[in-house]
Amino acid sequence: MSLDVWEIYEQFAQSDRSLMDEKHRGLLAVCDLRQEVASGGVDSYFRYWGADSAPAALAALPEILGSEWANLLEEAMDLFGAPFPINCDDRARFLDNNDLEETLEDLDRRLYDLEEAIDADACLNGYIASRFG
Fold it and tell me: For the segment 45-98, what is each residue's pLDDT rounded down to a tens digit?
C-alpha cells in the first residue's frame, strides 16, 4: 500500500507540528500552501492560518517541488518585509493596508501555472515514499 500525501495531510494537519521533525513539518507546510492557494488564492493563504507555516514550506519546497516553487513563495513572502510576520492577523492588516491586488493575482496565476506544469501530488507522494516509506 502506497502512502498518499492528502491522507497524511488529513491525518496530521491539525497536529502539534512543533513536536514533528523538519521533514514532516515541511511536507505539511507545502500541503498548507497548495491547499490554501487552491481554495482562495495567495491572498487567502497569507490572510489566514495557512501561511503560519510559510517559512517551513519555503525550506522544504526546493527538495519537494523544486526551486521555482521556492522562489515564487519567497517572492510572495518578501512582500511583507523582514522578518516575515508569522501571525495571520498581522499579515491580514498588511494586506488590507497595501494595494497588492494585482501583485497577488499575478502570484496566483504563476502558482496555478506551476500546478499545471507538473504533477505536484506525484512529486509529494514520491518524496513521501523516498523519505518515509
Answer: 999 999 999 999 999 999 999 999 999 999 999 999 999 999 999 999 999 999
Distance CA 79, CA 77 (A): 5
3-class SS string, the chain: CCCCHHHHHHHHCCCCHHHCCHHHHHHHHHHHHHHHHHHHHHHHHHHCHHHHHHHHHHHHHHHHCCHHHHHHHHHHHHCCCCCCCCCHHHHHHHHHHCCCHHHHHHHHHHHHHHHHHCCHHHHHHHHHHHHCC
